[in-house]
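Limitations

Structures in this collection are predictions, not experimental determinations, and the ligand pose is part of the prediction. Treat each record accordingly. The example that follows, with zinc ion as the small molecule, is included so readers can see exactly what is and is not provided: the inputs are given verbatim, and the output is the predicted complex.
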Amino acid sequence: MSIPEAEIARRVSVLSDGIRRGGLRLTHQRLEIAREVAGSETHPDVETVYQSVRRRVPTVSLDTIYRTMATLVDLGLLKRVSVPTASTRYDPDTSRHHHFICLGCGLVRDVHDETLDQVGIPGAASRLGTVDSVEVQFRGLCNSCMETADEGGDS
Ligand SMILES: [Zn+2]
Ligand SMILES: [Zn+2]
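Predicted complex:
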């Protein structure tokens, strides 16, 4: 389960364009941020991106990561995924999909399902305003957290 090279390259170029369009210079640091985010399937948080990019670009600051990612979100090129029990995560895949979220360890994984994609917008929601997107979150415990819970006995 990994993202094809061609798709990563496509995402990097879209994100790079976005950085420029957002009025930021496409520096080496920001390009590395785009690369990191584009190749990630784990829906990383800002801190995780910071730790990975810092290995290649030791001078990068947490603030640069924050500002770059916030710009990409504003431009609609990254999606924020809020996790009730962990920090906000970022998703480079802005196409329609859903998420499984582990409340134990904060794991976030994509869920693709045609039936869910066809869920209509009920009147109860559309009466309140315009709906741009619908996303279903499945929250619970991932398999590995379930195993740990079984072994440990108490939580
Ligand atoms: Zn878990
Ligand atoms: Zn996702």
